[in-house]
Amino acid sequence: MKNKFIQSIFVIAVGSMLFTSCKPKDSGDAVSGDAAQKAYVAPGKYDEFYNFVSGGFSGQLSVYGLPSGRLFRVIPVFSVDPEKGWGYSEETKPMLNTSHGFVPWDDLHHTEMSQTNGEVDGRWVFANANNTPRIARVDLKTFKTAEIIELPNVGGNHSSPFITENTEYVVAGTRFSVPGDYVNGDVPINTYKQNFKGHISFVKVGKEGEMDLAFQIVTPGVNFDLSHAGKGKSHGWMFFSCYNTEQANTLLEVNASQKDKDFIMAVNWKKAEEYVKAGKAKKQSVKYVRNKWDEKTHTATSETKNEVLVLDATALKDICYMIPCPKSPHGCDVDPTGEYIVGSGKLAALIPVFSFDKLQSAIANKQFDGDYSGISVVKYEAALHGEVKKPGLGPLHTEFDAKGNAYTSMFVSSEVVKWDIKSLKVLDRVPTYYSVGHLCVPGGDSKKPFGKYMIAYNKITKDRYLPTGPELAQSAQIYDISGDKMRLILDFPTIGEPHYAQAAPADLIRNNGQYKFYKIAENNYPFAAKGEKEAKVVRQGNKVHVYMTSIRSHFAPDNIEGIKMGDEVYFHITNLEQDWDVPHGFSIKGANNAELLIMPGETTTLKWVPDRVGMFPMYCTDFCSALHQEMSGYVRVSPAGSNVPLTWSVGTNQPKI
């Protein structure tokens, strides 16, 4: 009873601070006099960094420039996007396929950039789907989602997608432990402790970025929150924050906060690999889907997989260890040297920092404090480097610079605290506006942070922007961290609810072979028309395929007759342009899905089923030239059984067969 009473008092106190003390006392002095100059990027000049920000419940990834805060692009990942036709065109629909069917949305919380030797390399950005568990890979040559893989045995994919230092694996831990897909899940909810399990997924990444679910580790039924891979000396290990070690199944805000400490789980994935190679993993029957985009054929394919290799962490005693951590930890972060592991207990008033060397010594000397559901628990003091005392309220997430400093977000006290990794002394603190969640320092979770800026992604924006009804804009704030003191230089609205984000130097990405257009000669799409002479209309029963080209400023063909009620019409549009930034759009009256947006040299398909007899205008939806308005045409729809022949033309009033 005493513990519950103390918990209740703490929750009330936290709530009071959150809703009555939103504005920091020194907010009037928070912005320096030269802030505008530091954030200003002149017209025609480039930003120093790309910032890849999760879109939260929008299922999108947004790309901003730093330090300007300008929005460059919104990349649809797990969501449909009518602007780009993503999830609407026939080619992209398979990208949103899952074992549950077509799922056109998700809750994208975290992003992670690919690395080589522990350094950001600018090739790919990985993103997680928190709801229907998936991992996506975005290709930074095209800024397009290139692959999505579903994760079986998982009830939520929040602790994802965190990568090893050479992008060997993208790793994910389940948010909600559930019975595995390979066992009977029709069990009473209150049998959680007996039947619910966690699964950690290791997704292998190939040289070209292709993803394959290599193996999973089944663990006791806890909730994994965030994770980071070791680096340098700790390469080969993965560290996960765990909560609900009480294994509660109802009213978690009370029942999952009973203990003073939860855990960080340390996973020796190199040892796990050895066990897989030695045949220690069991093949389990499951069902999950992998979707891939092909830039040569301009199409996506979807395949269903039916088994996964699973290792049992309780049977193989040397792959997983528990480290006590103040309760309800969120962030789990590893410094650039790989020596220090930082836990962030949301309900703690300190920040524990663990030593990898001490952890290894504790394991070797069996300095354990019993076990948790069959997994050895390392003694807290045996692995502890030290604690950051009184840093603030509600530590959430930590990023690092290249000078030996750490930056931790304080959700409750609405601030960011800078502290020295070795001495654990607090060096500086700045207010945020308000209730900051995640942070981003460019390269801040790699071996080579680029520093200079720190971005805070906030949950509440009261009084920062013009009001927009009951819901206010989401926000981010940019701080200059090049000096001893952090200085706020800009805040800007963001899309969706920003969570974790990544940033990298612009030159690293834009000079890394970005596509400017697709070469027509390399377009291997079977319905491509690579010139106007190849434009045609073909009937196959009630399916009509229109091989159409677009170029400034007309379609070919632009007059089509002989379409009948009951037909399914497939417009395969090939953009013949071979110049940078000349996309064309396409839509037709009555289209109940979306437009198409076709990049130069690309072919994309719109399926259209006419619902009435009549004349249907079609037009280019993307402003492409001075004669954009003239880029249009007509489709005539006749009754079913009509004897109107199928004809098409461009540039003549009398179609030729």
From TrEMBL:
Keywords: Copper, Metal-binding. It comes from the Bacteria. The keyword Phosphoprotein does not apply. The keyword Ribosomal protein does not apply. It is found in: Cell envelope. It holds the Pfam family nos_propeller. GO terms for molecular function: copper ion binding. GO terms for cellular component: cell envelope. NCBIfam families: nitrous_NosZ_Gp. This is Nitrous oxide reductase. The lineage of its organism: Bacteria, Pseudomonadati, Bacteroidota, Flavobacteriia, Flavobacteriales.
